[in-house]
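2024-03-11 09:14:02 INFO receiving multi-entity request
2024-03-11 09:14:02 INFO entity count = two
2024-03-11 09:14:03 INFO echoing inputs for audit
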Amino acid sequence: MTHDELIMALENILGQQRVLHREHQLLAYECDGYVAQKARPRAVVFPETTDEVASIVKLLHEHKIPFLPRGAGTGLSGGATALNGEVIISLVKMDKFLSVDYENMRAVVQPGHINLQLTRKIAPQNWYYAPDPSSQSACTIGGNLAENAGGSHCLKYGVTTNHIVAAEVVLPTGEIVNVGSPFGDALGYDVLGLIVGSEGTMGIATAITVRILQKPEAVKTIMAMYDNVSDASDTVSDVIAAGIIPAAMEMMDQLAMQAVDKSNYHVGYPTDIDAVLLIEVDGLRAGVEESAELIVEICRKHNVRSVQVAGSDAERSLWWSSRKMAFGAMGRISPDYIVQDGVIPRTRLTEVLTRISEISRESGLRIANVFHAGDGNLHPLICYDSRVPGETERAVAAGSAILKVCADVGGSITGEHGVGVEKIEEMRFVFSDADLSAQIQIRSVFNPLDLCNSGKLIPKPGRCAEVRQAKRIIEQHAEIFDGFQEQTMIASPGK
Amino acid sequence: MTHDELIMALENILGQQRVLHREHQLLAYECDGYVAQKARPRAVVFPETTDEVASIVKLLHEHKIPFLPRGAGTGLSGGATALNGEVIISLVKMDKFLSVDYENMRAVVQPGHINLQLTRKIAPQNWYYAPDPSSQSACTIGGNLAENAGGSHCLKYGVTTNHIVAAEVVLPTGEIVNVGSPFGDALGYDVLGLIVGSEGTMGIATAITVRILQKPEAVKTIMAMYDNVSDASDTVSDVIAAGIIPAAMEMMDQLAMQAVDKSNYHVGYPTDIDAVLLIEVDGLRAGVEESAELIVEICRKHNVRSVQVAGSDAERSLWWSSRKMAFGAMGRISPDYIVQDGVIPRTRLTEVLTRISEISRESGLRIANVFHAGDGNLHPLICYDSRVPGETERAVAAGSAILKVCADVGGSITGEHGVGVEKIEEMRFVFSDADLSAQIQIRSVFNPLDLCNSGKLIPKPGRCAEVRQAKRIIEQHAEIFDGFQEQTMIASPGK
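2024-03-11 09:21:47 INFO inference complete, emitting structure
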């Protein structure tokens, strides 16, 4: 099938208006929120129904043409980058809110429905959808499903996989299947659990049933500032040890605060503090009051310089905006930056932060830290200038080195941003060739020809060239990678 | 390999003491808690280390001899029945508590470790393990993993899959792999999620890392008695609608209460009430007080006959014992009984209970109901007498008919007991042949020769003989199955 025949066949299904294929039209689709690697898709199509998605996928499968699904393009790991000149299937026109069942706590949306819109739609009845990525005003529920997105409030409520109970999915062969169970837990093997977080490699969700929650009766937000990170970090541990599970427990370091204060969010952080904690508790009024008092006490025990409870919704909202916009605010202090996303056991926080500041020194690059402290999910922000020769490479190597530290202390190389193209080689820090082969076998049950978002999430096992390249990067940046313990990440609990 | 050669090879690995193969020794292993179908294993072996498990599995795999893992044998769906004369690999000698890390909220145990022992071990430090099946004083964490076990307190805390974060697993080929991640969510495809609940068809967990929780500061337990089930059921809906998520919300009907009162638990239920609710809230003291008051108010709004809050730990403990022993208590009112396990949307409760009482009338068998009302997980207890010709078959057909009702209202055919051999044909109420083929393909990634617990969980797709047999059962018991709507269970949300 020639390129022109393909375009015509796609237009036959969708009409000319919903098939983009001219060069200037494709420019905007060369990358998502991960801008370090770009690639031109051969076309971008905009289906509006499940049957249209299935028809397109069948056509592409039949002619062995690679394709990938795309939501709002806010992803941070390059999951929607058309590495193989894919046809991009954009789900933004499938953005409907389909139904809601308050009594059974369920809502059904199309994949292009925007995360925050879902909460807005049910807010008048006092309900909400819990997972709240920083990009929630733009990102889609379909994209959240693909990336198993997290968010500040996932400490108490869990990430996306805990909130999606069923989905209609167009498999990479074009077959339409329904997975999961709107009520009751998974039956048979947990196929829905396998598809959530599969980064678009196992098909395209076309209708998604989510769990919705009632808004808590009361919320209290506490901001605590510290002269040093280890006091803040001890506070986090002690809050958990006290048996409180806050809805959120976020930390930012000095450099991140500077960036935020230079942007439009004038929280007015003192310039000389080392760390700020944002802790939120929610639930019934009486319990929330008790928790907030206890948390303030714990902060005081750990040498907090100042601690306050938000006095109004406006104040609470300003504090949260400053946190949620922290990534974007980095643009105020650095021409370019990479957002990393590693997970560590909470108890290793101080040690890992020390290692990150060493990596910053060794690489000569500033690194800010913004993180979901409660569950040990770090977001180091590596500042660099792509106009300076070699600096991009050093930034990438520093990011990789940080992920190696996370893996070495028993953590993970992604908390919520996905692997995509960005971290695909770092999967080898964690998985053996045998593990990767098993993952590829699982994928091939659904995606036998590897046409659907090929080259993402799971690296090919034992490709010597790639392993050699990874080794070369480590050697070239020996000073950054130096001194790592050679541990395996997946604990061997029984041995 | 002859039988004698096999026994010798097993004894070479484990020694004579840990290989049972004489007929009288095997009798106790002909079934688990599901007694309606029995089968003799060819041997039962007791490994003590991961390497021993791996050696045994390698030997069996090499000689294509079927095998299956077994925990305490408390399962209710026949998951540990040696349908194919399997070698049973008992994990009861691998019962160690390996380690605990309070700061990071993790403990590691061997698969044979008993559920309640885990909580007892960490209770002095004020921690516990949340999933609490009724059999928790006997059942093992490995068995809980295989069946994705639930329990009364899973309403608030989630079932086993939400509490297991990593595992060392001997695959059906004998390979030892580590899956999951002790910290952070699943990376790559969620293989651990696939193995949890796979009923022993994907390998044998030999070390299990679980999430542990701090004991709540306060607990309040409320018992409410009703003249009719629909008032009790409206109470359940209203409690959830009020934004309270109780730790547990359990219901028993009149027949179940009679059984309990005839056993050793003299709660003293009035003989003329229709339903009793047991509701428990936990958390910080202030929040718990507030919730308990609100719940009592809601009970009153729904014509409760009497409602009381447990005044002491002893009273609370009596109430819980009476609930947890309800299954066993059935023996007081019926020579035999089948415990069924279906899930329905909570809002369909009254309608489904009406249908169950019709099935009871049509089959001529008494059916008691004990259920996790909060999450719509029903446990109909079907009373029968196996000495009366035809009664066993009628009881099995009635159970199947109830599951069909659950499937037809959009629910599931198992909440927490698993599919095993008991419900394997009922999987067809829910899954198409295409769905079953996909599930078998997933299994074959791990269990290519289907040697490991063959014939459980996933029925073979489109085996005409079996489909014919299912149809014959439905025809023979037309009165019981009559009047079902022909709906598919898995909702088609987008269509």
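2024-03-11 09:21:48 INFO post-check: The radius of gyration of chain B is 23 Å.
2024-03-11 09:21:48 INFO post-check: The CA atoms of residues 399 and 482 of chain B lie 14 Å apart.
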